[in-house]
């Protein structure tokens, strides 16, 4: 029994008087299929597409070690090694003991731990929007306040200048009147 995502080794060994031509690893019982076929010298390797990129093979003198990686729940089955042999120039098939593989699902506890994440993200988004709104309104208020101050200053200076000009005009006579 292994957990989902782990790896497992299956060792296939066939002892016979004949010559081993090739070896099959077959998945039996649930969704029966040929997982792989390998020739005696390892020159030809055929892997079922369900196991592509998840299988590793080591050839030893009298056995083949097959490692299945990233196991999935649907990999649960009985795996049997079958050898194709030539005995007295007659093709024959021999089987080895089967390996029962049970893949159990990962614990769902991780999902419960992460259930608070959407609430935290929503709260953070609300805080961010509120802070942004506050900054924008503050900027507008400051800008408006600064513009009001400039308008008052401009009017005061203008009024002072116009008053001074009026006084100067009244105090000095018209130079063209003396003609």
Automatic annotation (TrEMBL):
TM region(s), chain numbering: 116-137
Official protein name in the record: Cytochrome P450 4B1-like
Biological-process GO terms, alphabetical: adaptive immune response
Matching PROSITE patterns: IG_LIKE
Gene Ontology MF, one: signaling receptor activity
Gene3D superfamilies named in the record: Immunoglobulins (2.60.40.10)
Residues covered by the Ig-like domain: 1-82
InterPro entries: CD7 (IPR039090), Ig-like_dom (IPR007110), Ig-like_dom_sf (IPR036179), Ig-like_fold (IPR013783), Ig_V-set (IPR013106)
SMART domains attached to this UniProt entry: IGv (SM00406)
